[in-house]
Amino acid sequence: MNTTQAEAISANPPQTPAELKEYRATIDNIDAALVHLLAERFRCTQKVGQLKARLDLPPADPEREAQQVARLQALAVSSGLDPEFAKKFLRFIVDEVIRHHEAVRETPSR
After folding, report:
1. How far apart are the C-alpha atoms of 80 and 86, rounded to whole Å?
2. CA distance 88 to 73
3. Does the keyword section mention Isomerase (predicted)?
4. Distance (Å, rounded) from C-alpha 102 to C-alpha 94?
5. What is the DSSP string of 47-99?
6. Which residues contact 86 (CB under 8 A, 6 or more apart)?
7. Is 110 helix (H, G, I), strand (E, B) or coil?
8. Quick one: angle between helices 18-54 and 83-106, nearest 10?
9. Interior CA angle at 73 toward 42 and 90, to 5°?
10. String of b and e for 70-92 (b: at least 16 CB within 10 Å)?
């Protein structure tokens, strides 16, 4: 695409079909729900981190993490989602949770 074509498109952008707008609105709603659910999850894991610190438990729990991976992969399969994606997604979340738990543990006033 040359500069003239790009300028013409930006001056007269093509109309977005109504069906595409509907899909995008649905995606936006799902994304908002995901953010709210993740926030709730992190509020809960913060409490877990505080409890672990008080009980002098390690921030990471590899056995629990393995159980969670297996559970989420099974849920992914039953939902038609790639189980490897579910595993990577959970790993990303768990790594962040562990980072938070380590920070709580290092804070003098538990």
Report:
1. 11
2. 10
3. yes
4. 12
5. HHHHHHHHTT--S--HHHHHHHHHHHHHHHHHHT--HHHHHHHHHHHHHHHHH
6. 72, 73, 75, 76
7. coil
8. 40
9. 25
10. eebbeebeeeeeebeebbeebee
Residue 51 CB contacts under 8 Å (≥ 6 apart), including other chains:
57
Domain range summary for the chain, segments of one domain joined by +: 17-106
Q: pLDDT tens-digit profile of 77-93?
A: 999 999 999 999 999 99
Q: Find where tokens 């849920």 sit.
A: 75
Which residues, at least 6 apart from 105, have a Cβ–Cβ distance to it below 8 Å? Answer: 49, 52, 53, 59
pLDDT per residue as tens digits for the range 30-43: 999 999 999 999 99
Q: What is the SS3 assignment for 107? A: coil
Which CATH superfamily includes the segment(s) 17-106?
Chorismate mutase (1.20.59.10)
Can you tell me the distance from the alpha carbon of 45 to that of 39, in angstroms, rounded to the nearest whole number?
Answer: 10
